[in-house]
Design a protein that fits this description.
The complex is a heterodimer of chains A (468) and B (167). The longest helix of chain A has 30 residues. Chain A has 15 helices and 15 strands. Chain A is globular and about 65 Å long. In chain A, helix 3 packs across helix 5. Chain A is of the alpha+beta class and 468 residues long. In chain A, 50% of the residues are buried. With 167 residues, chain B is of the alpha+beta class. In chain B, strands 1-2-3-4 form a 4-stranded antiparallel β-sheet, sandwiched between helices. In chain B, a hairpin with a 5-residue loop joins strand 3 and strand 4. The chains are: A alpha+beta (468), B alpha+beta (167). Chains A and B meet through helix 2, helix 8, helix 9, helix 10 and strand 2 of A and helix 4 of B.
Chain lengths: 468, 167
């Protein structure tokens, strides 16, 4: 990415974005106090949110739902429609931001094509209904009314949903939200609330637990070719870890390389943190090996979902030759074809576009780091460096090149996936996935050994106590 | 409204629960701050098939320790037993002394340094409590390691970036 591109990205927000976000913020404030007893201001927020989507297919139903909620008669279906309106507004914001990004970077993006629905997996509707009931209760009560009892009421739903593979997405989402509410209970004692965040999670959870929403999934189309890894983005809360690998796929039949992603995830417990998290992903040795050793991967008939995600199958990939991510990015990233995300996943948070930034000066500002390219600057998301990898704020501060993801959360941010830097006059490179087969830094190996093998200890305990 | 769009309240990704520190799990496999208590499970030193379920209530500081079969701990009198000491010490490794002490609402929470120190500042006595709730939370905790891994993308996890790198 060069100065001109950064300048185009940093220009004023696309038209309408600020207004849409203000409507969302007003609704989020209403949700904090509870939709069960709205103030005059809260009622206005709900009405305005519905009015904003009046011209969309949600139109009349949103207006009707807002009227009902504003007058105090709240039913589950009204809450679903309002959540849908909120999701639609943020989806539009995400589309506008991504269009800006594509224009600034000159990135070409394939249009969205709905996949043919595959065979529907049977999803137990009663589990979804249980989760929705809890979400309705939360919305009626409002964040400020949440205490231990209301949080504990989610336990049953989360536990049964986790046991159902088709419901993994809503299950890990609800688990993450419940953990935050539990740690914050009673919420009334909090000075300020993460209002946008919790409303986002609530909205998504309600979308994912709609009947018929999951199950009839995209099965993907088989693709073959060479996958060149750009980097690994690590997601984690107390009970789950996900490694999402970004890469370029060179299709076997030729044509321009395509930006793709693939994700592997596993449930875990809170005491499995830092480099130990790789231990719960041991079912994917081919992908982890390619990450740690910077190898390319040869894919044969790997399913590719419409949104650009490869449905990783270890049996359909073999590791190939060395392929340095920085070299891949320098040569091929600019001409790659990007995918469009699935409509329901569109949200500013889901924007994660691989970019290469070089020739900058790293500067410390307000306790954070920004990269300066002549007259332009981008803030580095230094709080997104995973505990399971070698990247540190110190490495960023002395870096000269960075492979990262462009993100947006109120402003554009650069999330590093890898950096090149000079340490004691020697060029060094560090990537998030370098420790996928175990840490390579002797200090980290030692501290990992000190805390022992958490997975083994807990599996032993589980073996003795769980199946009694 | 002209609120700052980068304000903390208007951010989608922000750290609400600080990540815990890794620790040796052999003696105390499970510790949590939940349901208004510091609670957990301590492995018996003599019988590998037995565990003690211990908790300290926030505010009242009432404490309890019994086996998973609900037999009272033989070492528990008017003061906390060795299992409760172990629980407090490991909780401090996992969460940090300040967070544990504040959760329990101990006087002078920010000056607590060790598990021993924390136990010394409790002003409650033994209280009746069922081990069943805590033990079932422990079993649920263990069950997370029994679930299969998956390669279906979980888009929601973009709200939960890994944030551990402070070395």
């Amino acid at each position: 990415m060069i100065e001109v591109q950064l300048g185009a990205l940093n220009a004023d927000l696309p038209p309408g974005v600020e207004e849409a976000l203000d409507l969302v913020a007003a609704f989020d404030d209403a949700l904090a106090g509870g939709l069960g007893r709205l103030s005059e201001q809260g009622a206005r927020a709900v009405t305005c949110l519905a009015a904003a989507v009046a011209a969309s297919p949600l139109g009349d139903r949103a207006v009707e739902a807002a009227e009902k909620v504003a007058t105090g008669s709240v039913a589950g279906e009204h809450l679903t429609i309002l959540a849908g309106a909120r999701a639609a507004l943020l989806g539009a914001v995400a589309d506008a931001l991504l269009a800006r990004l594509d224009e600034a970077l000159g990135r070409s993006r394939a249009p969205w094509r709905e996949a043919a629905a595959g065979a529907a997996a049977a999803v137990p509707e009663n589990l979804l209904a249980g989760a929705r009931a809890w979400l309705h209760e939360l919305a009626i009560t409002g964040w400020r009314g949440v205490g231990h009892d209301l949080v504990a009421a989610s336990d049953q739903a989360v536990e049964t949903m986790l046991a159902e593979p088709a419901l993994r997405r809503p299950a890990v989402l609800l688990d993450g939200l419940a953990a935050e509410l539990r740690a914050s209970s009673p919420v009334s004692t909090m000075e300020k609330l993460p209002a946008r965040r919790w409303a986002d999670l609530w909205t998504r959870a309600l979308m994912l637990t709609q009947p018929g929403r999951l199950g009839a999934g995209d099965q993907g189309v088989p693709v073959s070719g060479r996958l060149l890894i750009l980097g690994a983005d690590v997601h984690e809360h107390a009970t789950v870890v996900q490694v999402q690998v970004h890469g370029l796929l060179e299709p076997k039949e030729g044509g321009e390389p395509r930006l793709v992603r693939t994700a592997i995830s596993a449930t875990k417990v809170d005491t499995i943190v830092g480099p130990a998290v790789w231990g719960v992903l041991g079912d994917y040795p081919v992908l982890l090996g390619a990450l740690a050793r910077h190898l390319s991967l040869d894919l044969t008939d790997m399913p590719l979902l419409a949104g650009g995600d490869l449905l990783w199958d270890e049996g359909k990939a073999v590791t190939g030759a060395l392929a340095a991510p920085f070299a891949t990015a320098r040569v091929q990233l600019a001409g790659a074809l990007a995918p469009a995300g699935p409509p329901l996943d569109r949200h500013p948070v889901a924007i994660a576009e691989p970019v290469l930034v070089e020739g900058y000066k790293a500067a410390k500002v307000d306790g954070g780091i920004e990269f300066r390219l002549d007259g332009q600057a981008i803030t580095v998301a230094a709080d997104r460096l995973p505990g399971c990898g070698p990247l540190t704020p110190q490495l960023l501060a002395t870096s000269t090149a960075c492979l990262g993801l462009l993100r947006w959360d109120g402003r554009w941010l650069l999330q590093p996936l890898a950096v090149q830097s000079t340490v004691k006059r020697q060029p060094v490179a560090a990537h998030n996935g370098d420790w996928a087969l175990g840490p390579t830094d002797p200090k980290v190996v030692k501290s990992l050994a000190r805390s022992g093998d958490a997975v083994a200890v807990l599996r032993e305990r589980a073996g003795r106590l769980l199946r009694k | 409204m002209n609120a700052d769009p980068t304000a903390w309240e208007r951010r989608s990704v922000t750290l609400v629960v600080p990540p815990v520190q890794p620790r040796k799990l052999a003696k105390v496999p499970f510790v949590e701050l939940a349901d208004g208590r510091l609670q957990g499970v301590v492995s018996s030193g003599s019988d590998i098939g037995r565990v003690y379920v211990s908790f300290i209530a926030a505010g009242t500081h009432g404490f309890s320790c019994s086996t998973n079969n609900n037999r009272p701990c033989g070492g528990l009198y008017s003061s906390p037993c060795k299992h409760l000491h172990a629980l407090a010490a490991e909780a401090i490794v996992q969460y940090g002394a300040g967070r544990v002490a504040r959760y329990l609402r101990v006087d002078g929470a920010d000056t607590v340094e060790s598990g021993h120190d924390l136990i010394g500042r409790l002003n409650g006595g033994p209280e009746q409590g069922s081990a069943a709730v805590v033990f079932s939370r422990f079993l649920r905790h263990l069950s997370y390691l029994e679930l299969p891994a998956t390669s279906a993308p979980v888009a929601e996890l973009h709200w939960f970036p890994s944030t551990g790198a402070v070395r």
